[in-house]
Amino acid sequence: MNQDQKVSTMVDQSEAAVAAPFQTYDEAVAWINGLIPFGIRPGMERIQRLMELLGHPERRLKFIHVAGTNGKGSTCAFLTKVLLEGGFTVGTYTSPYITKFTNRFQYNGEDIPEETLLELANRLEPLVAEIADSGLGSPTMFEVSTALAILYYGEVSYPDVVVWETGLGGRLDVTNIVHPIISVITNIGMDHTDVLGDTIQEIAMEKAGIIKPGVPVVSTVTQPEAVEILKETAEKNRTSLYLVDEQFSYKRLHGNEEGQTFHFSGPFRDMELEISMLGEHQCANAALAMMTLEVLRQYMAFIVDDKELRTGFKDAFWAGRLEQVQSNPRIVLDGAHNPEGAESLAKSLPQIYKYRKLNFMMGMLANKHHESYLQHILPIVDTLILTEPDFRKKLDAKAFADIVEQVREKYAKHTLQIIIEPNWKNALEELKSRTEAEDLGVVSGTLYLIADVRSNLLGLSDSEKGW
Predict the structure, then answer these.
(1) Which PANTHER family match (predicted)?
(2) How far apart (Å, rounded) are the C-alpha atoms in residues 466 and 95?
(3) Which helix (H) or strand (E) holds 439?
(4) Which of 176, 225, 298, 314 has its C-alpha lying 20 to 30 A from 328's C-alpha?
(5) Helix (H) and strand (E) counts in the chain
């Protein structure tokens, strides 16, 4: 390179540095999170415009699109781990994240590098500004995150397949910009009713919105009214629907604190599988992942040898889901934050653990179905510690206590002790001090609380937690 070329290169680099809106990873993340006030605005116009401006990188990728009320993250974890064991390269896009913003964009089980996120944010910022100045309004935080994920997979890492979790609902969720090779719907429950609707049918219609013409669908939805909507939508789209208890089934065989085994029976073969994730609901999630993998194997040549398949299922892990993070005293974390999650948790705890007293710490957001959550949890709890997540939409601990008192007589043990401690760190110390060797301490509720408690107990740096 001659002197003129060197000078020219230096000038180009200098201009690029000046042109780049963000100089550091922290600045880029602060910008993306700064879009949170624009809220959750279901609709596809802004993400469609972003994809047009980027030259449609999403069209170069194969997606497994996963929707549902609960179990999406765990199902994504099973799919990712098995495909990785099988030798495929895998992108995984999930939310919310437990520890760090980069968690939501993974390639082969590793977070996106901070410098790559910075580069992609710098590419997106002027496009976001352009759309914000148009009649469409500013793209939201989740829209920008989704566009960043597509750029990362479509232009940087090029995985064989992307495991792609919806944010909210399905039909108008921005992740629905993609055309997947298979659609997966875990279950339907009463969550985000302010956005998705007040009935199982309304919520099912939103989730079923990820079903595309000719793209097979796999689901563990069981409510008759929701099943009917899935069947109608699949028929309308002229595609195959693989439904639990119809085309495939599973049965939990046994389990303990170390893991569990279940029998899977499908249209192509039967198999006994072992998983380390706890709770009967994880057998449902694993069976759903297995049926998804069976369809991919049968029709799309995603071949995973049995040995790698078994290893993948056994090694799959998802933080904050019946995760024992401390043994003295025993503390278990579970991000059950809606009635269906609470029902699974209440059923799983006595199935898995032996304990004398159950001490339960929880904090919630203000927009949840608290009574229908409490009806599952209160009957099994001896001491209830009510606290507040460090998050803007938190439910005040005293207000939460008022809700508990209203339903206490209906659901709780007459010996239930209630403690109100708004500071979650103090509440955690209270939980630890009250949980003796024969007892079990559980922290549950919103994942924003789980994220902070997990970082604290495992000695991690403060979590960046967020949606």
Answers:
(1) DIHYDROFOLATE SYNTHETASE-RELATED, FOLYLPOLYGLUTAMATE SYNTHASE-RELATED
(2) 8
(3) none
(4) 314
(5) 16, 17
Place of tokens 């970082």: 455
Q: Which CATH superfamily is domain 323-458 in?
A: Mur ligase, C-terminal domain (3.90.190.20)
Identify whether the C-beta of residue 108 lies closer than 8 Å to the C-beta of residue 90: yes
Residue 328 three-state SS: coil
Tokens linked to 415: 């010996």
Query: What confidence tier does 7 reach under pLDDT thresholds 50, 70, 90?
Result: very low
> Taking residues 325-347, what's their average pLDDT?
93
Residue 199 DSSP one-character state: S
Q: Tens digit of pLDDT for each residue in 429-467?
A: 999 999 999 999 999 999 889 999 999 999 886 556 554
Tokens of residue 184, six digits: 């997966």
Percent of the chain with pLDDT over 70: 92
Cα-flanking dihedrals φ and ψ of residue 256, to 5°? -150, -160
Torsion 276-315-261-277 (CA) sign: positive
Q: Domain 25-315: give its CATH architecture.
A: 3-Layer(aba) Sandwich (3.40)
Residues 6+ apart with CB under 8 A from 140: 35, 36, 38, 39, 40, 41, 46
